[in-house]
Sequence to fold (501 residues):
Amino acid sequence: MMEVHHIDSNILDLEKINEILNNFKKLNLSNHSKERIQKCRLYLDERMKLEANPIYGINTGFGSLCDVEIKGEDLQQLQENLVMSHACGTGEAVSQEIVKLMLLLKIQSLSYGHSGVQLATVERLIDFYNNNVFPVVYTQGSLGASGDLAPLAHLSLPLIGLGEVVVDGERMSGEVMLQKFSWEKINLQSKEGLALLNGTQFMSAFGIHNLLKAYKLSYLADLAGTLSLEAFDGRKEPFNQLIHLVRPHNGQLKTAERINDFLEDSELIAQPKKHVQDPYSFRCMPQVHGATKDTLAFVTKTFLTEINSVTDNPNIFVAENEIISGGNFHGQPLALALDYLAIAMAELGNISERRTYQLVSGLRGLPAFLVSNPGLNSGFMIPQYTAASIVSANKQLCTPSSVDSIVSSNGQEDHVSMGANGAVKAKKVIDNVQSVLAIELMNASQALSFRKYKSSPFIQSFVEMFREDVPLVKNDRVLHDDIKSSERFIDNLMIEAGELF
Fold:
């Protein structure tokens, strides 16, 4: 039976979005959403019949052309010209997963009835979503201030039979797509082009995608770190709740609790230790991993506010009989949050690589580079190099985008957020962290095989599952293949939402 998510005024949160995506739910507009959209459009049509004054973006030009008044017979062409002229994206094509999120979030924002779009326009976007029609959108071109103009223009072009889409893996023109589905092009009415292009759905879709992955990697960082702790014959005392209750950062408490859960009934952790303390990369996991968790909480709050908001311009308030031009499209809240997210996630990679380094160093009874015959075999020497290279790349990527700005639109748009650049960079950082954690899992599971005592039943079960994809290394082989297998293992690993969020 087909599962359906009804677009309404209920709050979209990460768990709900995760459910919609993972269960491949279709979208449908609730009756209340339809009424709001239609009521707003009717108000705008009636207002335009009586309005003698210019209203930005409705009967005027755009940006620095806001003082150029447009005659009524040209309003439809004005909106189509806007979409065409703003489709100036370049760079790589955005992944289909993120384009699908862009569609969902644009539909949600338009459904509140403050944007003046036709019902048919929103329903066609829903058709795109439900039929896996993915407009071709590009990563470069948005300043993150007047909304994500270029990316959203590419998202909107197929509505009028232009641009390109991907359907069932086939790339085709917007015109061919309309023919394929026997759809008529949307005749954009006053304000609609601006409603489609103004908004933060490019930044927001990247942000939500990044957050969903970040929560998964945060969990796996705790798990990989615990596995490394066991393999390194580490101590359990640093995870005692008493330590964390006297410095009760939420993320710190959560990390210590999770590590203790992972270690439950471990024979290995209970063995007497010859060393008094562990290096920081083991001992301070609650403090470091926990700080990232607290960052995720802040970034989540910012993005959930954003995706449940109206972010185009101008905004239409039917009950108040007001059409107000403002700046809800400005991406500054997202830009700052995306930079913070990238920095916090990079730190999970930094500390992971340090644990990997300790494991291959021939300490605490482990063989050098984690192979039985080092010298003839290089073992896990070079995966640590790879991890080190990646974490340094992340440090370079973490230079904040939000501290930058540049003047555009002939000085009318004189401060921009650069949040779109931050969104794309944050995704690269998070993808890189996955690779670093994949390398740690390889090293930690290999190191654990040299221990006499068993770890906890949970960790033993996890390692057995991991071993199905990445076997033990007895003699040198092409470890690139193992790294890719470990990355795929992380991709395919399903973790209950209750554990993640």
About this structure: The CA atoms of residues 250 and 476 lie 43 Å apart. The two ends are 28 Å apart (CA to CA).
